[in-house]
Amino acid sequence: MKVLGIIPARLNSTRLPKKLLINVAGKPVLQWTWEAVRRSRVLDEIIIAADSREIMDAAKRFGAQTMLTSPVHNSGTERVREVALKIKPDIAVNIQADEPLINAQIIDSLALFMLDNPDAEVATVIKKISIREEAANPDVVKVVVDKDGFALYFSRLPIPFVRGKKNSQGVFYKHLGVYAYRLSFLEEFGSLPKSYLEDAEKLEQLRFLYAGKKIKTIITEVETVGIDTDEDIKKFENILNSAANKS
Question: Within a domain: residue 141?
């Protein structure tokens, strides 16, 4: 079975313009992510799904395989779908382009789950929140799951609400935003209706749940650092400097 890693890469972002092309320690953020993904032992191929020539040119400069996709997609899944429908892998893994410290173990655990569970349509990764401030941060997406590990709901608010206590005292899980899809799901995704839940939270995975799809969650202990703000860039630089000083 073919497992394709797809990195949807959008040039413009609201909070940090052209963040994927920001140079950190001699490399653009996008290259750091691509190099991290290449450490996977399960992916058969990796493609950067670009929304612009500028992203494509940057990816080609550091040797990545890339494909130009429509500039009008509203989500990473839509961009991943366009690539997957052309290449036809059995499983497509969606890795966010702004995750330069993504651990290949996360990618591989997700892909292996899909390979071992042919009935699964969609799977994603979650992690227990250890920093209290993340529970209240709307940029950190929270998730609640059922007894079998299937997602019940995703929200930017702290869920579940802990009645009679401050929410920070509860147990929360965050969504790391890495997905694996069966090709048949991506084929069907194009006909799934966009729901009011997705519009309200601005979370594409709520379209899956609204349509009655089941999303299996896999718990990891591995932390990631997404790039959304200038502060995140500084945090990433500090991590790199710390690692360099230890070596």
Answer: yes
Q: Among 225, 205, 204, 226, which residue's Cα sits nearest to residue 216? A: 205
CATH number of the domain enclosing 146: 3.90.550.10
Whether 247 is in a domain gets the answer no
Question: Would you state the structure tokens that stand for residue 109, as one six-digit string?
Answer: 């655990």
pLDDT one digit per residue (tens) for the chain, 247 residues: 999 999 999 998 878 999 999 999 999 999 999 999 999 999 999 999 999 999 999 999 999 999 999 999 989 999 999 999 999 999 999 999 999 999 999 999 999 999 999 999 999 999 999 888 999 999 899 999 999 999 999 999 999 998 876 544 679 999 998 999 999 999 999 999 989 999 999 999 999 999 999 999 999 998 888 898 999 999 999 999 988 877 6
pTM metric for this prediction: 0.93
- Host H or E run for residue 176: strand 173-182
**Coarse DSSP helix, strand, coil percentages of the chain, rounded to the nearest 5 percent:** 35, 25, 40
Closest CA to 50 of 73, 28, 67: 67
Domain, as residue range, for 78: 3-229
Asked whether residue 24 is domain-assigned, the answer is yes
Whether 241 is in a domain gets the answer no
Q: How many distinct structural domains can be found in the chain? A: 1
